[in-house]
Each structure stands twice: as structure tokens, then as C-alpha cells.
Amino acid sequence: MTENPSTTATEDDIPEQLKVRHAKRADMLAEGAKPYPLGVKRTTTLKRLREEYGHLEAEASTGVIASVTGRVIFVRTGGKLCFATIREGDGTQLQLMLSLAKVGEESLGEWKRLIDIGDVVAVTGEVITSKRGELSVMADEWEMAAKALRPLPVAHKPMSEETRVRQRYVDLIMRPEARDTARNRAAVVHTLRDIMHQRDFMEVETPVLQAIASGANARPFTTHFNAINMDVYLRIALELYLKRCVVGGIDRVFEISRNFRNEGADSTHSPEFSMMEAYEAYGDYRSIGRLTRDLVVGCAESVFGSTTVTHADGTELEFGGEWREVTLFGALSEALGEPVSIETPYDRLVAFAEKTDLEVNPVWGPGKLAEELFEHLVTDTLVNPTFVLDYPEETSPLTAAHRDTPGLTEKWDLYVRGVELATGYSELIDPVVQRERFEQQARLAAKGDDEAMKLDEDFLRAMEYGMPPTGGMGMGIDRLLMALTGLGIRETILFPFVKPE
Questions:
Q1: Angle at which helices 366-377 and 346-355 pack, to 10 degrees?
Q2: What distance in Å separates the CA atoms of residue 140 and residue 107, rounded to the nearest whole number?
Q3: Helices (DSSP H) in 388-486: which residue ranges?
Q4: C-beta separation of 367 from 329 below 8 A
Q5: What are phi and psi of 124, to 5 degrees?
Q6: Chain centre to alpha carbon of residue 371
Q7: Which domains does the chain have, with CATH numbers?
Q8: The dihedral of CA 264, 265, 266, 267: what is its sign?
Q9: Nearest Cα to 45, choosing from 74, 73, 87?
Q10: Residue 354: burial class (beta carbons within 10 Å; 0-12, 13-18, 19+)
Q11: What confidence score (pLDDT) does residue 214 get?
Q12: What is the torsional sign of CA 397, 402, 407, 409?
């Protein structure tokens, strides 16, 4: 049989260890034992035992018989007394003790012969404490719950990031930080839903497969719908369907979902990612900004117990208090040392780009170039939570025109640690202007912009029935975890896409 050696041990060790473990599995089957039973006895959890009996002094006997399960992470085989440590999925550990007097010679011998680090076992026995005061289960009997055919990585040799991502299941076994990140993500999503439900937002589900990929400036993934012989797209955003809900009278609506963008992957981008979008009738970008702040602060408080969070590198970030606000052109002017605005000529912006070593894509208009200059010069300086307000109309085709400044829209982007976390709009609700914006996007697509939005006739038809003034926002769940923990996006996503080995 051909094996694929693990990258976490040497090539010389791995094949031999695999052979030994496969041989033990074969021995169990030959002897009528079950290396992978359909069920084992389990009456409590390790965490519950620690909560109930963790206060006991040394050499205490409870008289309580418990059946526990866990993965073996340490074994010490002596003569008449063996010790082991098992761990449950939540990270709780407990000591096992197996004595000749309790389990008998045959069972103790099988333990010594068959058990390896990484095996999952079930043990029944009395809850006691050892001479050193360690809470333990003194086994009366044991059985294999799952024989591990691959050895775990050596504890003192950290796994590489690539291995952690490819083999997240091993990462979860070995590193408490990986388990904490998975739990924190679940808690963040739970908190977001709780806050939205408390504020009377309705959660809905919208299509993943779409005939038209729109709602964001992004390149879509394409697939083929065999039943109707038609190419369709994986959604790049939730916006247009959620706005249909607002037209239909669902005044407060949100969705948390997976989206897909056929773009590059780096420390802040993943082609498959999670997003939350929310729309509030009779709101605007200011009201939806307040909601977004409350959501982020609520997640920090409920998950981490404070508005001050400590990142993986030990630095702290404060989410409490009022968040800073800047305008895009105001911040860009400060960075350039010269005033620029939506009226600054294109040639002048090109000169700024050349001066600051920004390569200019010929399909960019002045608004897009100004935004690229901002991202090139300013975003890395936005460490603390900062709302960047008032974006060019050219780059915001679904956003309402600014009520005071022609050429701008009522849009903000929220930045934390130099990364865009969320975006919010006063939504464009005029169907005639929306059609004009879509047509402008079509002209950009004809010039070679493969991220330009597509015209969606059904969405325009929905808007023609009348959409009330609305504030909308979209926030990346993965990036929210990044902002709260300081981790890269591949660490906050449990199973990010990786190239096949």
C-alpha cells in the first residue's frame, strides 16, 4: 500500500511508524477487537469532571464511576501502573491511570502493546486524585475508540503555516490557539446574529448561483447549469437580492453567507469568504455606520470580554469610544502634501501616481485613480478603527450621490490595522440613475475592466416599484476576526482553499 508521508516528521521515521500502527490495527482485527467501533461508553466530559472534582486534595477517592473519552497525548508505561493523558476537543485534559490490580494482566498488556500517541480511547473507572494531587480516572476497563494510523507532529517542533492550513485537523489537535480561533469565530457569528435580531432585523437566504454576477466590483467564478444548459456565476455579493427584500417591505434585513470572487489570494484576501450584509429602510450611511460600530464593539465585548483586545503578536487595540472619521480626499491631500478633490484633473492625479511609484492602469478614470492613490498612500496608516467617508461616484455605482458635494457618494469604508473591514452606503434608490450607472459600468467593461458590474434588468425592475431611502452595509466576517485577533485571513478561515499537493 502506498502512503503519503507527513511533512511533520522525517522521511525515515514516517514509513516505519505507519507500518507499526497498521500492524497494530491488523492485530486488533485478527484478535476480534474493534479498532473503529460504532460507539463507546461515555457518561461525562473531561471538562465536567474538572468542574465537579477539580478542588479535591491529593489521594482522594470519590467513589464515582465515570466513562470518559479523549485523544491520547501522553503515555508512560511502567511495570504494574501506567499513566496517560487524554484531551477532548475543547482542550480539556485529564490523567488516566491503569493498574495491574484493576484492569488485569491481559488488559494492561494490550494497553502497553496497542496504544500510541494520537489514539482516541474510552476509559471507565473511579474518579480519584493521584499522590501528586492530579485529578485522574483509575481505569477498570478501556477500549479503543479510534486507532490513529498517523503519528502526531512532535510537540516541540512547530508546524509550518502551510502545513497548519493544509492539515487544519492536525492544527486543531496540536495548538490551543487554533481551537480558540475556531471557537471565537463561532462566537462572533452568534453575537452578530443576536445583535441584529435584538434590533428587529430579519435574516434571509439569497441565491448562491446567479444568472448575473453583480453587487460588487469583482471577477466572478463561472460554472455550468446542466439542466438548463446555461453558464451561471457564484455570487460575489448579497446586495442586489437584499435590496429586493427592502423593495418588498422587509425594512430591516440581513444575511451572513459565503461569497466567491475569482481574484488573488494573500494575507487579506481569500477567493471564498464570509460576509454579512444588512439593509435598513429609512436609514443612511451615518445610521448604518453606527450599527456597524455597535456590531464590532459588541463582538469584542461578548467574545473577548472588553473593548480592548489583545492580538496574537501581543499588541492591543481599542475599539471603545468614538471612532476616527476622515474623508478620502482629505486624507489623500494630507498624504500628498497638496490639496486634491473630486475636481482635480486626471493628468494631475497621474503625476501624483508617477511621483509616488503607483502604476496606473489605463482603464482607470480619475475617481478610480484617486481611490488607488489613497490605498497606496494612506490605508497602511489607519491602525485604529477609522471611517473613511465620501468616495467618488465612478467607483460606487450602487451608492447615492452625496447630498452636498457633486461627484461624490455617501459611502464609507471602515479600516482597522490598514485593512478594509466593512463598507456602508446611503443606497441609490433612483432606478433611472441606477440604470445610467450600470450602463457606465458596461462601458468600463468594454474597455477591459473585468471587475465592472453587470446590468441586472430584474433588479432595475424591482427598483421601479419603489425602494425607500435605505442605509446598507457589508462586513467581512474573516476580516472581523482579523481585526479582533491580529491573525491573517488564512488563520481565521477554518479551511481556506489551498492548491492540491
A1: 30
A2: 10
A3: 431-446, 457-463, 477-485
A4: no
A5: -120, 130
A6: 27
A7: 16-146 (2.40.50.140), 173-323+384-492 (3.30.930.10)
A8: positive
A9: 87
A10: exposed
A11: 83
A12: negative
Distance set, CA 287 to CA 41, 92, 280, 412 (Å): 54, 43, 9, 12
- In sign, the C-alpha dihedral spanning 364, 367, 371, 377 is positive
Buried-state track 132-165, b at ≥16 Cβ within 10 A, e below 16: eeebbbbbbebbbbbbbbbbbbeeeeebeeebbb
Task: Give the three cell numbers for residue 399.
Answer: 451608492
Strand pairing report for 419-426 and 411-416: antiparallel
Burial 12-26 (b: 16+ CB within 10 A, else e): eebeebbeebeebbe
Distance CA 496, CA 501 (A): 14
Q: N- to C-terminal Cα distance for the chain? A: 19
Torsion angle (degrees, nearest 10) of CA 232, 234, 235, 236: -120
Residue with cell 477532548: 88
The closest of 387, 384, 352 to 366, measured between CA atoms, is: 352
Locate 395 and state its grid cell.
467607483
- Which residue reads 501522553 in cell numbers? 74
Low-confidence ranges of the chain (pLDDT < 50): 1-11
Answer yes or no: is 413 a known binding residue: yes
How many angstroms separate the CA atoms of 375 and 372, rounded? Answer: 5
CA nearest neighbour of 409 among 394, 399, 422:
399
Sheet holding 252-260, edge to edge: 202-203, 252-260, 272-281, 470-476, 419-426, 411-416, 386-389, 324-327
In sequence order, what are the beta bridge partners of 305? none
Backbone angles phi, psi at 333, to 5 degrees: -60, -40
Residue 313, marked binder: no
Nearest to 445 by CA among 219, 212, 240: 219
Distance of CA 374 to CAs 333, 340, 377, Å? 9, 11, 5
How do residues 185-235 score in pLDDT, each as one tens digit?
999 999 999 999 999 999 999 999 999 888 888 899 999 999 999 999 999
What is the model's pTM? 0.89
Look at residues 397, 393, 395 and name the one whose alpha carbon lies nearest to residue 405: 393
Rounded distance between C-alpha atoms, residue 465 and residue 447, angstroms: 32
**Looking at residue 181, what DSSP letter applies?**
H
pLDDT of residue 12: 52
Using a 10 angstrom Cβ sphere, with 0-12 exposed, 13-18 middle and 19 or more buried, the burial of residue 131 is: exposed
- Cell, residue 368: 478610480
For residue 394, count other CB atoms closer than 10 A to its CB. 21
How does pLDDT run across 462-492, given as a tens digit for each residue? 999 999 999 999 999 999 999 999 999 999 9
Q: CA–CA separation, 122 vs 35, rounded Å?
A: 12
Q: Give 401's DSSP letter.
A: B
Q: At residue 388, what are phi and psi to the nearest 5 degrees?
A: -100, 120
| H helical segments located in 5-60 | 13-30, 46-53
